[in-house]
Design brief:
Length: 342
């Protein structure tokens, strides 16, 4: 029988704040612990030396890239550097040699390069970055987290379709509930963008639960929360900052005195679970949805653990055929205005 398993994941080793060392270490862990098939993309000699240090020379294929998009470069650099490691990852996907890519590089560079070289799926007006928030009993998907800052109402409605497909594949939610992030729960609240988006969301086949305010992001009221990229990115960074503060304060309080340390002993397991759930490295990063390929954008500050998680996420999304699921959802939720690229 033919092999129906997804192809390898192309990993951009040249992005991120910690350089190739952290990326390669995380990639090796993904191969050895999860059996994830990878192709490491970047400066060939550098990658080979790092693989040798880990005793993994010859264990993971290497694709050489002659150029690098630095963390300081923006969207325009994607055209100036056609041989960058991000561009080579996209080329591997288009040629069928890879099924997905992972990059911890500059978000603007990854988004612009992927849009240029992978192109949007038919009917998709703009791609969106989907991220997972640490809600209970399961994570919540927030999109857009920064790909499209100046969105139109039709785009927000379409983001609901993208997020629904993502929640079904990544989180296993059969019928995800969709909420709209704005400044009030009443239907008439918000600006022109969100008021019109509300009307569209009530007219398409998604389980729309209405408007949501910022203090409801972590309540689990919705499985998918849609927003324009500007608002979504601010909301995401606020949640990440609050989570880091909460973990740091709890750890400081429980280690301040000997009595506090003893009192915390019976709760160590729960505290470890909480720390794990609030750690962004657990989730692997955001996913750029709506393109002809799977793109996972890891945090710029990703450590090896985060890269391992990102590789596993990319593999699982491909196994769940996320691109085809999005295609089906976009067709099912298409309104007369959908499909127009503004």
């Amino acid at each position: 029988m033919p092999d129906t398993s997804p192809g390898p994941v192309a990993v951009d080793t040249m992005g991120g704040d910690h350089g190739p060392a952290a990326i390669v270490a995380g990639a090796i862990a993904a191969v050895r612990t999860n059996g994830t098939r990878l192709i490491l993309v970047g400066d060939g000699p550098t990658i080979y030396d790092l693989l040798t240090e880990h005793g993994a020379a010859g264990e993971v294929p290497i694709a050489h890239a002659g150029e690098i998009l630095s963390m300081e470069e923006g969207a325009l650099a994607s055209r100036r550097k056609p041989r960058s490691s991000i561009a080579i990852c996209c080329r591997l996907i288009r040629s069928g040699q890879a099924s997905a890519m992972v990059s911890a590089g500059t978000t603007a560079g990854v988004v612009s390069t992927a849009r240029l070289r992978l192109r949007a799926q038919h009917g998709v007006m703009r791609p969106a970055i989907a991220v997972t928030l640490p809600t209970r009993p399961r994570p919540t998907v927030l999109l857009d987290a920064g790909a499209t800052t100046d969105a139109k109402p039709e785009m927000l409605a379409q983001f609901a379709a993208l997020g629904t497909a993502y929640a079904q594949v990544a989180l296993g939610v059969p019928e995800p509930r969709v909420g709209l992030l704005t400044i009030g729960v009443e239907p008439g609240k918000g600006n022109k963008l969100t008021r019109r988006a509300y009307e569209l969301l009530t007219a398409i086949p998604v389980d729309f639960v209405g408007n949501m305010e910022g203090d409801e992001l972590l309540t689990g009221r919705a499985d998918v929360i849609v927003s324009d990229g500007f608002t979504g990115n601010v909301a995401l960074k606020s949640v990440e900052g609050a989570a880091r503060l909460a973990v740091a304060e709890v750890q400081a309080a429980l280690t301040a005195t000997r009595v506090a340390k003893l009192a915390a002993l019976p709760h160590r397991r729960r505290l470890r679970e909480l720390t794990h759930r609030l750690d962004s490295a657990t989730y692997g990063g955001g996913v750029l949805l709506g393109l002809n390929g799977t793109v996972v954008i890891a945090h710029g500050g990703s450590n090896a653990k985060a890269i391992t998680s990102a590789c596993a996420l990319a593999r699982d999304l491909c196994a769940g055929d996320i691109v085809e699921r999005i295609k089906e959802r976009v067709l099912a939720t298409r309104l007369p205005r959908f499909g127009r690229r503004d």
